[in-house]
Amino acid sequence: MDINVTLIGQMVAFALFVWFTMKFVWPPITSAMAERQQKIADGLAAADKGARDLQEAAAKAEDALKQAREEAREILAGANRQAMQILEEARTAAQSESDRIKGQAQAEIDQSIASAREALRKEVATLAISGAEKILGREIDAAAHSDIVDRLAAQI
Amino acid sequence: MASGNGEAVSSTDYVIHHLTNLKLDLATMTLDSHATGFWVLHVDSLFFALVLGGLFLWLFRKVAKSATAGVPSGMQNFVEMIVEFVDGQVKETFPGTHPLVAPLSLTIFVWVFLMNCMDLVPVDLLPTMAAGVGIDYLKVVPVADVNVTLGMALTVLLILYYFNIKFKGLGGFAKEALTHPFGPYMAPFNLLLRIVEDLAKPVSLSLRLFGNLFAGELIFILIALLFMQGWLLSALGLGLHWLWAVFHILVVTLQAFVFMVLTIVYLSLAAEHH
Predict the structure, then answer these.
(1) Cβ count near B206 (within 10 Å)
(2) pTM over cut 0.80
(3) Among the four residues A110, A113, A156, B237, which has the most C-beta atoms within 10 Å?
(4) Measured on CA atoms in the order B47, B53, B54, B55, is the torsion positive or negative?
């Protein structure tokens, strides 16, 4: 193990190699690595943001859907209410119409009954008078006794 | 065997042969593996170190040039994994930021790892191939050469001083060296302690790596010796070689990691104010 000029040669070679590495090898490699690191970080951030946006959009869509459903329900309820109202109105109208018709018919019936009763009463009065004439054997002055006859007829 | 001249080689010669560098004597500009002195270059150590370092720079530069922030391809993934691992270690330990720390750590980790991996190449493969083209000596593991590990450790030491002065100022650094840890009245002792401490750093860095890999390579060479001792020992050698290689996959990675982490720790100490 003799020390000789090889030592100097190795020192110079080593210094040159280190200089070369420092100048031409290390910076490009590390800068490429740093750049890639940045790119990956950016990509991850973008992915995160995308996921967040997606979530937001989904929530928004969900909201819109809910609102639409609400509206539909409201519209449906309104329509139902309106239908019920129309139905109610129709029923009321029909009821009143039927009442009216019924009332009219009743009135007619009442009138018919009254007139029939009147006619009957008149008939009975006539019959009573004719019966009384036969019984009395003479004619009763219809005009003079009409009040009695009428009272009689009213009692029947 | 590796000597390539067909003579029977003794075990000692075989081991020594494998541990001898291919040397270039700069005084005479001749290849002489028995040359001594300071002006001798270990051609093989430096060659493999440069080739592996070049492989590292080429591969990482290729990825760096085509690096995109998009979906990374296989090779980019692999490189980024290493870069991120080193960056994590630096961020965990080093206070503040300095553009030198992480690239330095990355260079140490990958380069030392690759040089350590030469350990796993079968010991006779490359020397035998070299012998085929007339090169008699070849030591293929650069980190089993103390010049290589000490060279790296000394460069780290220089950077440590640069950091000390940059982060504390020249005065702050001098003050720390003179007053730490025993206060201003023990200044000479403090300085002495500081010198020992600063010497210990490169020595511990380099000798740990050198020792581990040198010893590992030596064991591989010793196991390789078994292949010359008949089929029974060859079979045993095969098993041992496999075991030692598996163990060394761990050592190779661990030593590269330790060198890197200690460097970061030393740099943090240099950058921290007391």
Answers:
(1) 24
(2) no
(3) B237
(4) positive
